[in-house]
Amino acid sequence: MSLYLRDAVVVDWRTLKFTPGHLEVDEGESGGVRIIQAIPEKLGADDRVLDCRNRLVTRSFACGHHHAYSALALGMPPPAQTPADFQQKLQHVWWKLDRALDPELVLISALATALECARNGVTFVIDHHSSPHAVEGSLDAIAGAFAEVGIGVLPCLELSDRDGVAACEKGLAETGNRLASGKPCLVGLHASFTVGDDLLAKAVALSQKYLSGIHVHAAEDPVDQETTFAYYGCRVVERFKEAGVLESARTILVHGLHLDRDERAILKGSPAWVVENMESNLNNRVGFFRGEGLSSRVMLGTDGMHSDMLRSAQAAYFGGIDPERAGLTEIYSRLRRVHDYLQENGFSGDGENNLVVLDYPSSTPVSAENFLGHLFYGLGARHVDSVIARGRLIVENRRVLTVDEEAVRAMARAGAEKLWRRMAETA
Ligand SMILES: [Zn+2]
Question: Exposed (0-12), middle (13-18) or buried (19+): which is 177, by Cβ within 10 Å?
């Protein structure tokens, strides 16, 4: 089966070159795309033609760090006790929320997140999941929900010592089971300050056994550095290096705000990746990301704030102007580096046949030369008209084709009420 995009303006996601023409899109995990001279006159019964007149077509987006489990937090009542700092915010909000998740709420959160991704032209997500009281089967459930909507996912469980040894062992077993079955998965950890040496060693051993990588928050707040130094006598990146975390090109360190010069040099000399999440950092008042001293292995995420990578890129640019003076080209590169991470590490499902069709009626000229100006100052999720994931049309003319959007939203609203009620009961 082929999908044809008629009369599109194709924007090459690497060079930004504009090419008017028709596109032939193959279906499948490793399907390709080709610009063709004419749509075939005789089409197969399963072939589809999408009219893309006055539309820009480019590679869809992918998210380098997400928390689908936080989907039902949108609009929830504030905690009874206002958190005074980052650690209290974890204790009074996020750790309370993830402990209240049951298997049904995990599934609903994943469906709601995948739905938002589809609407925003995000076709692949690297997810960091936590539901300490609903661990078993959670990774497959999340992957299944994303697949139902048509979104690719590289999941993991964010393990920590905060819920005791039994929860840790369950999480390691859940991660190990998924890795053993050959499905895509990373070994997730919450952060250095919540992970003891025993868990850290077990996680690295599991990662090495299956040639996976570690996905962990790092130096998001000074508390991570202070606690690590107090307990282990070294800084976060030094500890991770000693433990073998940084040896894999699949390893992802999230945030990396409070790194000293030596830690930046260690990271630069390792194959590990770093993910910037500007809006989350602003929201938590934990500081500003700076690419200084790091390699180009930096990608962007949403940290569970939302599922809109255009918005994340714009926040990274505007929030970074003062602290690091990164230009449009640098931030665009960070937006797109996630594709390189996934491809170089052999994770399938994020190939060239993942596309977004943009209905962008600009009042000023749009060209290869000024496309980044439009991407950062003009484009938004509201311009996402259609989305193609692994060659399959999953959003057409702003309508999600794969799931009943209203049914998913109704289920998510009911789930949110249940979750908020449970959180209030444990106040
Ligand atoms: Zn995170």
Answer: middle
- Angle (CA) 419 422 423, round 5°: 85
Between the CA of 337 and the centroid of ligand 1 the distance, in Å, is 18
CA of 159 to the centre of ligand 1 (A): 12
Report how far ligand 1's centroid is from the alpha carbon of 243 (Å): 21
Instruction: Tell me how far apart the alpha carbons of residues 184 and 99 are, in angstroms, rounded to a whole number.
Output: 25
From-to residues of CATH 2.30.40.10 in the chain? 2-59+350-400
Residue environment code for 262-278, b if the CB has 16+ CB neighbours within 10 A, otherwise e: ebbebbeebbbbbbbbb
Distance of CA 378 to the CA centre of its chain: 23
CATH number of 61-344: 3.20.20.140
At residue 389, φ and ψ (nearest 5 deg) are -120, 125
Which of 321, 227, 249 has its CA nearest to residue 278? 321
Q: What is the pLDDT of residues 30-67, one digit of tens each?
A: 899 999 999 999 999 989 999 999 999 999 999 999 99
CA distance 197 to 202: 9
Q: Which residues contact 169 (CB under 8 A, 6 or more apart)?
A: none
pLDDT in tens, 279-314: 999 999 999 999 999 999 999 999 999 999 999 999
Question: From the CA of 346, how far away is ligand 1's center (Å)?
Answer: 23
Burial class (CB in 10 A: 0-12, 13-18, 19+), 370: middle
- CATH superfamily, region 2-59+350-400: Urease, subunit C, domain 1 (2.30.40.10)
Q: Considering the entire predicted model, what is its pTM?
A: 0.98
- For CATH 3.20.20.140, the residue range(s) in the chain are 61-344
- Between CA 376 and CA 364 the distance in angstroms is 14
Distance 164 CA to ligand 1 centre (A): 21
